[in-house]
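#structure-requests
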Amino acid sequence: MVTFVGLSTVSLSNPEHKETNTMVEGRLRTFALAAAFLMSLPAFAQEGTFFTPGNLVVAVEGCGVYAGTCTNVPNGTGNGSGNSSVGGYGDNQASPLTLFQYAPNGTASATYVNSLVLQPNSSAADVNLSSEYGSSSEATVQLSGAGQYLTIMGYGINVGAFNLNPDAYGSPGGQLAQSGSLTGQSYTPIPRVLTLIDANGNVNSATTVYNIFNLNNPRSAYTLNGSTAYLSGQGTGSDATGGVFYVPVGVPDTAPTAITGLDTSSKTIAQDTRTVQIYSNTLYVSVDSKEGSGSNRDYIGTLGSPPATGLYNNNGGPTMLTGFGNTGGTGKETITTGTNSNGNNLNAGLPINLSSSNYFFASASVLYVADTGAPKNDSNGDNNSTGTANIGNGGLEKWVNSQSNGSGTWSLAYTLWRGLNLVNNGNTSGTSGLYGLAGNVSGNTVELYVTNYTLSDLDFTYLYGITDNLTFTTASQASGESFSLLATAPSDSNFKGVSFTPTIPAGSVEVTTSPSGLTVTTSGTGCAPGTYIAPVTLSWTPGSSCTLSVAGTQIASGTQYVFTQWADGNTNTSDTVTAPATTAVYTANFNTTTGGLYSPAPGSTLTGSSATFRWFGPPQTTAFWMDIGSTAGGNNYYQSGTLPTTTLLATVNGLPTNGSTIYVTLWWLVNGVWVNNPYTFTAFNTSGAQGVLTTPTPGSTLTSSTVTFGWMAGAGASAYWLDVGSSPGSNNYYQSGNLGNVLTTTVSGLPTNGSTVYATLYSLVGGQWLSSAYTYTALNSGSVLAQMSSPAPGSTLHGNVQTFSWSAGSGATAYWLDVGSTQGGNDIYQSGNLGNALTTTVYSLPANNSPIYVTLWSYVGGQWFYNEYNYTSAP
């Protein structure tokens, strides 16, 4: 299930233009109006995507304004140190989470395109989203399995609300990551939120997860198809809320399924994890942790192939990739020396601990890993030391497997570091390694994009690019490769994860609601049947007939919503469309309501003699009552009696269809007092609304057993249905079913005995089938068909030759003679069409005292009719 926020927070910035807070607010208002206009368009449309395929997306925490700054943040604690302005966001405060889109020129340069603030303004789900400014391990962003979504984790709290009163959320120190997520506590829990973003810039922030990553960071998320997801992060270090979890997408969750579980300290607490993803049907996760005891970890490991959906390995933790550091799993690796040293420029010949963050499988046997250079495990030294010995391996590591299918042993081939200006992790600031990573392979060319990892929370952050050769296995081969600086994070902003943009696969559609966050159901073969929180991107089979439907009334976040129409103008709650060959967007529009009768629209004209009235009442309502009559306050048409608050509709039949005024009074009981609202409607007028049968002329004699009936359209009719039978209202000869707006239908197999034929034409008017009855006289074929005159029927024929003659039929225009050894057969003779000839000679009679069967056909009114005769063929 997927909940999306619309385009109201899109910003399209001129790369040369610096923006202040006031300008940003104006920009958002402008795009909110633009989004509202787009959502009001009267037809379904194939819309241009927000993201361009092949571009890069960088997650940005903090101010998030391209070439701008934030200096007047409410309750901002920025003090001017590092990348923090006075009056801006301070270290560890709640801040917006934004995506910057860049158009890369290979890996040499990149151009800023636009930005998307992941902060819902008008979603029915109304889920707020924040990030912790200065966090070192958040906001990994990566593509879903099919590439149609970006995934990112955040906090379900309004930025301003948290910074105003962090104590209320269990964080007296004001650090967002230190907020509580546990339910049933004295504080207000902040859920950790899985967020999906599609190619149109719609944001899904409805997956709010509690009792997870308590007092710590949500780090990464991965989904194959947008229906379920894996989440990874850190808990307190003394509880069960850290590690990898499995959740459904689009719904709140207070009990996520643990995958790693209680995997340390004798299986009493959960250890934290970093980036989780699926490659080649195997679930992987990176780990850099010393939480608990007895199972400190620095490696990349697996969690099932196929991916586990329940507790993995009996709380045993991830299974380390073979060869990834020491067998103990603490990430110990001794860097080689010389020209082909496999480390960075600071650690040749030294023992180090790995610190894997994000990673990218370029193939089954080639793995790139962004190493932060600042491992939590320090079994090879003290990473708080100010000495010269670097005990990390910051940079972009290339690991190669001994087997082409990845089933062998992994070894560190080399580390790309040139151009990063790395510092020893014992320093207090600067870049010690890398955090985000995205890669693309074309032949043997591997384009890689990374963000840096800093030792101080508010150090400046950057986006880099580098190109590697997939076949290289030694540092000397890659010695000419160096990182190019592509972009620098703006003031008061930090770059975090990096990914390629999402795309909409051909044949996929996006189903949305306005506002977003409401429920839509799809049905039909090839239409991904199911119920979803919209918008959702679905893979449909082109050409399939797909039905979209919504409940007419929905409640989200305490607000009542009423369906108005689909974007194509259809006011029915169901809409059938044909799956496109490319892509399309389908939108269901809703309005809010605060109480009273809302459907049909008060003052409108009813569409038939039956109507379903729908309403809401004030929150204090304890009962309802509805009266409907021909006068104000009257109830001669309908009186409901007392209705419970769970009944919010009533279908009323037998309403007049003469265009008169109908009076409806809705009562609700509040605090023991009945309060009413009166409404008026205009009754449906059936005059001239039905179709009229015109051909054949009603009352006439039919000229054939096959007849095409035609009718004139009714002014109020939207569909037609024809029944034909042997008695009034019957359909034993023909039943058309719903013909839609077709105005003709052909009926075959009608009688030819001169009997009365009854036709009933139904017209669908205002949701009601209204009938008109007609009669006809069937063709009487017995009086018009040719009759055999010679030889006499039933006589004995002698010899092999016989001439057959017949009288002309009064309505016949041609004849045909068949002679056979069985009834209706023609194995002895078949004349073919004889035109108006009245005789034909047969030369092949058997003359053996056997019976022969003669069929004389007459062509009458465009149909062949026959008479049968029997003879004996003698010598």
